[in-house]
Amino acid sequence: MASSNGDGNDRGSMWDLDQKLDQPMDEEAGRLKNAYREKKFSALLLLRFAFQSLGVVYGDLGTSPLYVFYNTFPHGVEHKEQVIEVLSMIIYSLTLVPLLKYVFIVCRANDNGQGGTFALYSLLCRHADINTIPNRHRTDEDLTTYSRYKFHEKSFAAKTKQWLEKHTSRKNALLLLVLVGTCMMIGDGILTPAISVLSAAGGIKVADPNMSNDVVVLVAVIILVGLFSMQHYGTDRVGLLFAPIVLLWFLMIGGIGIFNIWKHDGRVLRAFSPVYVYRYFKRSGKDGWTSLGGILLSITGTEALFADLAHFPVLAIQIAFTVVVFPCLLLAYSGQAAYLVNHQDHVSDAFYRSIPDSVYWPVFIVATLSAIVASQASISATFSIIKQALALGCFPRVKVVHTSKKFLGQIYIPDINWVLLVLCIAVTAGFRNQSQIGNAYGTAVVIVMLATTFLMILIMLLVWRWHWIPVLIFTALSLVVELTYFSAVIFKVNQGGWVPLVIAAGFLIVMVVWHYGTVKRYEFEMHSKVSMAWILGLGPNLGLVRVPGIGLVYTELASGVPHIFSHFITNLPAIHSVVVFVCVKYLPVYTVPEDERFLVKRIGPKSFHMFRCVARYGYKDLHKKDDDFEKKLFHSLSVFVRLESMMEGCTDSEEYSVYGQETLQSMAELNHTSESGDSIVPFDSTIGQSSVLMRSIGQASSQTEVDELEFLISCRDAGVVHILGNTMVRA
């Protein structure tokens, strides 16, 4: 790790060794970095991905026809033209938001295939220094997954970057925007199961009008309990069933839509004319404005579409939406509208009433299964979001369980699962009807969309380097649509819209406080690092008995010796023969390849047997302190010792000679006044004195390497101990 005095002494570190030995060409590095984004898929494989994406990505969006018209007309339909005007609003909302904005623009802003607000934030963190925890290092940019673009200093993108980096308040405001969007997505994970399952279960009451609403609520609660209880099995085991169910659902609602248009009133197809959008706003007044909250529900699930992007290529998702999802949804809404034109008093159960009697129960079963699939997608997305918040240092540590060996993204968080269940049951049993839950749902969705829009503006400027004119057009169109819907849901805050605000506020407080404490703790550890001169003054035994074994001392610092180590030295009678300071560091990338995971450096002279290891992870990776982690860490130590020995034997590099002279001078200064965290690797201090000295070192290096490797192996066999300090942060 780079020494904190910034005098160039970090040139002998492990990652520079890799660069000197390998010397990769710029073109080759670029090829590796782009390998993740340039995958070619055959037509057959692409169709398979498109089919599978139906079950994972589109379940939420596909179940919206269950409740849209009821929430749009909670007080009934006044006249036939009103139905056509609402249908026109639904058609153009689906066209502008899911189709044009998300499927063809926002989905392109993925982080090597990862979607969601955190993926956008990670992209921005790589293109601008906006991370609120200042642990960025130049070697992070050498990762194959750390793809980013450079721009001209006088470009508009460079000016935007400078504007963002200039004040800490702007960085904090951007993080707060991401956290607000995240908290609303968590609220979405609570409200989606509630409204989807309750709407599907409502089909029982349509078949038997005398049935009490309590029975419908009870059935919905039983389904929800079963759904959340099955989460620990993961979606991998039942995922194969999702796509056929959702495909069958789309074909059913599309077919029923065609039947209703043919049977009831084909004139509803006039709604494809934008004139009816104008008539809607002109005729409806305030009541029509507030009914926009119900129309908004037709595009719910759009944000989940982006959040669940990781499993499939963007092209597959685009094919599935344009070929299956979009046409079937238009037919479904048009069919319901055609039915409502002739049966205006059936608006509260428009979906189930419009189903032909001969296929009623099969459709009811598929609707219930589709609601479960939609709920599963939102719950899985919530788990993924919490995991990403953990990596960002914005959420308390909770247990994360991988449910699949094949898919890295499929995780289960027990604590969050039961919190979601309790809140979901409370919402379902508390409101007992779709209308108020729909109001709450709409509020959560539109705020997430606004957060994504603001992040996309920065993505277009910094990452895509678009001209400001198309960015302005995108911003204007997005904000016109989304702020219109936002103004409508504000009127419904007291009718259920307060629920996601309260839920989001609770999670936001937890996240902001936890992140604040994380930053303060990091700043404390940075300012209270132990002086290397003090460590050297203790001698090779560190003033203690060195017992066989390897001690892994965990620290937040990627450079320097943590303050907690001085506490160990002064309070413990013994310390392990080998001490490794382990820094688990999360980077703004979705994953770090295994062969690039660890960075190793020596601390102090060889006789001290002290090392630093930085374990780097992406926000999708899972860190475990298990045998596999120990094995990989020890392998990295062994490789480091071998490379260090090889470099000691080098005699033909003038470059190392220059570095050696600087290092010798630095070592002399270090013994008197050093305050830096890391000492210089001894092999640097020997390089460059003379060719004769280099040859003598070269002859002895192999024996030194063998001796140290044997010592490390004997210490590993004696046992590995994980040492974690406990930091108390007081207000």
From TrEMBL:
It holds the Pfam family K_trans_C. Its main location: membrane. Residues 50-535 form the K+ potassium transporter integral membrane domain. It comes from Opuntia streptacantha. Potassium transporter. Keywords: Ion transport, Membrane, Potassium, Potassium transport, Transmembrane, Transmembrane helix, Transport. Residues 548-631 form the K+ potassium transporter C-terminal domain. Belongs to the HAK/KUP transporter (TC 2.A.72.3) family. One of its GO terms (cellular component) is plasma membrane. The keyword Ribonucleoprotein does not apply. InterPro entries: K+_transporter, K_trans_C, K_trans_N. NCBIfam families: kup. It comes from the Eukaryota. GO terms for molecular function: potassium ion transmembrane transporter activity. This is Potassium transporter. It is a multi-pass membrane protein. It is found in: Cell membrane; Membrane. The chain crosses the membrane at residues 41-63, 83-104, 173-195, 215-233, 240-262, 288-307, 314-339, 359-386, 407-429, 441-464, 471-491, 497-519, 531-554, 574-592.
